[in-house]
Specification:
The structure is a single chain. This protein is of the alpha/beta class. The protein has one domain (2-269): Nucleoside phosphorylase domain (Rossmann fold). The chain is built from six helices and nine strands; from the N terminus they run αββββαββαβαβαβα. The chain has helices spanning 2-14, 88-101, 160-172, 193-201, 212-220, 245-269, and strands at 22-25, 38-44, 62-68, 71-77, 105-114, 124-132, 177-184, 206-208, 225-234. Strands 5-8-7-6-9 form a five-stranded mixed barrel. Helix 1 crosses helix 2 (88-101), helix 2 crosses helix 5 and helix 3 (160-172) crosses helix 6 (245-269). The longest helix has 25 residues, at 245-269.
């Protein structure tokens, strides 16, 4: 894999991706963040050697490099999921490439359902911890020890310093920012009532289909990471109605300005 990572990074360096400081992965329906970036270069995923290709219609599939908040950033506009048929290594591969290019911090957003019914649609949760229900690990492959410590510590997977800054920014700007546990499932089907009850029992606050593989790999690479869930639906098993994907997209769009403000101000302060 190391050779593939180096090939991808070399290709991007030739296209102007020089000395980035911060990597950003945008979740479903959260692609407008790039409007804040002074773009220097952008490359479609399908042009980057060894890169997966985005297949979800809500994800545009571009790697964007530019200036934001006085920093050089790389933004993944569109991410990969195992429900698209990718492996966990595929899903987390861009994190390895961004680290090879030089990023020293990683920010992640996702769209998620609220298992904690104190959280409401359109609000945001700072991820403090996670539960991996995706049935595997992005580190479970031969030769992983050549890229980092095989037995990666996950006692504190999310960077406390960036988390505190995000909470300060939220307070200063009257943004409701919850804090809690995100659980990642395979998908793409939504959960049953029994599954929502189970997720609550095991300590889940929000549930989605992404983020955890990228966070595991970030920890494998000693890369500090902060992540937030934008809450797009409320998952009450006692009052469960069929999910309308358009409603989820609308909720993401409503909450997105607050997510953009949190990340933009954080980048300025780093």
């Amino acid at each position: 894999m190391k050779r593939f990572i180096e090939e991808s990074a070399h290709f991007l360096k030739e296209r102007g991706f020089e000395a980035p400081e911060i990597g950003i992965i945008l979740g479903t329906g959260l692609g407008q963040f790039v409007d804040k970036v002074e773009i220097i270069s952008s490359v479609s995923y399908n042009h980057i050697p060894n890169f997966p290709t985005a297949t979800v219609e809500f994800h545009t599939g571009k790697l964007i490099y530019g200036n934001l908040g006085g920093k050089k950033v790389i933004v993944m506009q569109g991410r990969f999921h195992i429900y698209e048929g990718y492996t966990l290594q595929d899903v987390s591969y861009p994190v390895r490439v961004m680290r090879e290019l030089g990023i020293s911090k990683l920010l992640i957003s996702n769209a998620a359902g609220a298992i904690n019914l104190n959280f409401k649609k359109g609000e945001i949760m700072l991820i403090d911890d996670h539960i991996n229900l995706q049935g595997g690990s992005p580190l479970a492959f031969k030769g992983v020890g050549l890229l980092g410590t095989r037995f990666t510590d996950m006692s504190a997977p999310y960077d406390a310093e960036m988390g505190e800054i995000l909470k300060e920014i939220a307070a200063e700007n009257n943004i409701t920012l919850h804090e809690g546990v995100y659980t990642s499932v395979v998908g793409p089907q939504l959960e049953t009532r029994a599954e929502y009850r189970y997720l609550k029992i095991i300590g889940t606050d929000t549930v989605g289909m992404s983020t955890v593989p990228e966070v595991i790999v970030a920890n494998h690479l000693d890369l500090p990471v902060a992540a937030v869930s934008v809450i797009t639906d409320e998952c009450d098993p006692e009052n469960l109605a069929p999910v309308d994907i358009q409603d989820i997209m609308d909720a993401a769009a409503k909450a997105e300005p607050n997510m953009v403000l949190l990340f933009t101000k954080l980048i300025e302060k780093l």
